[in-house]
């Protein structure tokens, strides 16, 4: 597979629509590949949460949520961000992780997956976390394909909630030292 050359940078406000459309494409593809029933797991709700994260990035100048995009030519082909933990993560861990930031919105366009884009984004994100004096982050996933990737990258999750989303579909949480 030919590797896509990307530039990783912070997003621009005028790219909001393009980024939101990119996230929709990735989530629709993920739901299809994971065989997720949109009637049960609301795609629009998932998109709304990602839009809110992006809006928070622009409103706070990257302080509340810090976003990165991977760009190839004029196309957004990847995103990744970190910020305060989601309510779900706090609930599942019973607050045990307290102030550990959460990495999320780790999306790569379906046509560019498996080409190292997420790894490139992750390395840039780690640099920013270190710059801020942060030495660990957490991430969670209920998507089985993503869970396999995170297990290869970070090992076994710290928390596993069996049958959380449906029979045979767990939710997993990792703590990653930088």
From TrEMBL:
InterPro entries: Acyl_CoA_acyltransferase, GNAT_dom. SUPFAM superfamilies: Acyl-CoA N-acyltransferases (Nat). It holds the Pfam family Acetyltransf_1. PROSITE patterns: GNAT (PS51186). One of its GO terms (molecular function) is acyltransferase activity, transferring groups other than amino-acyl groups. Transmembrane segments: none annotated. It comes from the Bacteria. CDD domains: NAT_SF. This is Acetyltransferase (GNAT) family protein. The keyword tRNA-binding does not apply. Gene3D superfamilies: 3.40.630.30.
């Amino acid at each position: 597979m030919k590797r896509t050359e990307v530039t990783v940078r912070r997003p621009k406000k005028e790219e909001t629509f393009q980024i939101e459309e990119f996230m929709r494409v990735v989530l629709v593809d993920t739901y299809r590949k994971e065989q997720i029933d949109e009637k049960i797991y609301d795609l629009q709700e998932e998109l709304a949460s990602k839009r809110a994260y992006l809006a928070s990035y622009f409103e706070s100048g990257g302080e509340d949520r810090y976003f990165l995009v991977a760009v190839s030519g004029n196309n957004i082909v990847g995103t990744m961000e970190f910020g305060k933990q989601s309510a779900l993560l706090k609930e599942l861990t019973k607050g045990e992780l307290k102030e550990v930031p959460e990495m999320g919105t780790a999306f790569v366009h379906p046509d560019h997956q498996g080409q190292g884009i997420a790894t490139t984004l992750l390395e840039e994100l780690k640099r920013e976390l270190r710059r801020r004096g942060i030495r660990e982050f957490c991430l969670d996933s209920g998507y089985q394909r993503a869970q396999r990737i995170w297990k290869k990258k970070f090992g076994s999750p710290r928390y596993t909630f069996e049958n959380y989303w449906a029979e045979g579909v767990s939710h997993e949480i990792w703590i990653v030292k930088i």
